[in-house]
UniProtKB/TrEMBL annotation:
Function, in words: Catalyzes the first step in hexosamine metabolism, converting fructose-6P into glucosamine-6P using glutamine as a nitrogen source.
First-to-last residue of the parent protein present: 241 to 608 of 608
Gene: glmS
Residues of the SIS domain: 45-184, 217-358
Stated name of the protein: Glutamine--fructose-6-phosphate aminotransferase [isomerizing]
Lineage: Bacteria, Bacillati, Bacillota, Clostridia, Thermoanaerobacterales
Catalytic activity entry: D-fructose 6-phosphate + L-glutamine = D-glucosamine 6-phosphate + L-glutamate
């Protein structure tokens, strides 16, 4: 087993480090001529796209969190309403599905029982189903109408890392494909997004350099009882995933909040020393986020913030700021999540938890 870990202490750490290459593999051959998207055998025509009036993204856990990013991105680029559903809820709530609905199911393993059932429910009601999965020949890949593989390679650790980042890449590609065909995105802007996507493997590599700093941070904070993750827009979606990572492997209670929601309840929980992870990579929301961060620091919250390189406004306001390599804010989630994975990892290691096999959890949930 130690050979399989490639010199890393845990599969999770190995898989975190595999992300630059995994992102590259997911992109390979799928962006051609600067801004044309080729999605394997998925070929939705402009006519078919014009008929779609709603998209469902259905998944569980980390894959669901990828779906939340997908919603923001598809709606922004392709201007089609998107609902993101937790698969175990979707199948029992009589969702409104018909031939005009496109359903995207997301599943690393392709074997999650609730996601398979949701896929069947969507098909039964006439929806076309696109699957994003990592496992060739999995049940979900066989049941769906179209499949986009993430090509992340085997993911062994229960906590999903490279599957998430590559699911995001796949969702960005779908969003671009729909938008370009529908004509809702400017070609130059699409090219700029594609260029940024291609640069992400290198930027992801740089982010891994935060390892030592995050390890040290974890060694000082692994005794935290509660951790709050805050963000706005795409940062909120990433906050949800960061929070899940921490919970599942370190057993520290944590919650993710849309930062604007704080004052509607959660702020009551912030007291002297409460650890808050504030994501502030979304430049167009920065001022709003800054005021939410101040709401926390005023009450004694201890803030670790993530900001976009070049924006030093949080220095002196929060305890610590780490910088995400400069990128377009639209694609930032793909790299912002990486230090959050590392943080969860080191918190769990400091606590002496079984990182790769957290208690009570299975890699693939094939029962309801
Ligand atoms: C993530 O770290 C989890 N262990 C879990 O939430 C997982 O993402 C979920 O069970 C869905 O699995 P799937 O992607 O294989 O369908």
């Amino acid at each position: 087993e130690s050979a399989e870990k490639g010199g890393y202490e845990h599969f999770m750490l190995k898989e975190i480090h595999e992300q630059p290459n995994a992102i590259k593999d997911t992109l390979r051959g799928r962006i051609v001529n600067d801004n044309e998207i080729v999605l394997d055998k998925v070929n939705i025509t402009k006519d078919e796209i014009d008929k779609i009036d709603k998209i469902f993204i259905v998944a569980c856990g980390t894959a669901y969190h990828a779906g939340v990013v997908g919603k923001y991105v598809i709606e922004k680029f392709a201007r089609i309403p998107v609902e993101v559903d937790i698969a175990s809820e979707f199948r029992y709530r009589e969702p409104i599905i018909n031939e005009k609905t496109l359903t995207i199911v997301v599943s690393q393993s392709g074997e999650t029982a609730d996601t398979i059932a949701a896929l069947k429910e969507a098909k039964r009601n006439g929806s076309r189903v696109i699957a994003i999965t990592n496992v060739v020949g999995s049940s979900i890949s066989r049941e769906a109408d179209d499949v986009i593989y993430t090509w992340a390679g085997p993911e062994i650790a229960v906590a999903s890392t490279k599957a998430y980042t590559t699911q995001l890449v796949a969702l960005y590609l779908i969003a671009l494909d729909l938008a370009l065909k529908k004509g809702t995105i400017d070609k130059e802007y699409a090219k700029a997004i594609c260029d940024e996507l291609k640069q992400l493997p290198d930027k992801a590599k740089h982010i891994l350099d935060y390892k030592d700093e995050l390890q040290e941070f974890a060694s000082n904070h692994f005794n935290s009882k509660d951790v709050f993750y805050l963000g706005r827009g795409l940062d909120y979606a990433v906050a949800m995933e960061g929070s899940l990572k921490l919970k599942e492997i370190s057993y520290i209670h944590s919650e993710a909040y849309a930062a604007g929601e704080l004052k509607h309840g959660t702020l009551a929980l912030i007291e002297d020393g409460t650890l808050v992870i504030a994501l502030a990579t979304q430049e167009h929301l920065f001022e709003k986020m800054l005021s939410n961060i101040r709401e926390v620091t005023t009450r004694g919250g201890y803030v670790l913030a993530f900001a976009m390189e070049g924006n030093n406004q949080l220095e002196g306001i929060v305890e610590k700021v780490l910088y995400i390599p400069k990128t377009m804010e639209e694609v930032a989630p793909i790299i912002t999540v990486i230090p959050l994975q590392l943080l969860a990892y080191y918190m769990a290691v400091e606590k002496g938890c079984d990182v790769d096999k957290p208690r009570n959890l299975a890699k693939s949930v094939t029962v309801e």
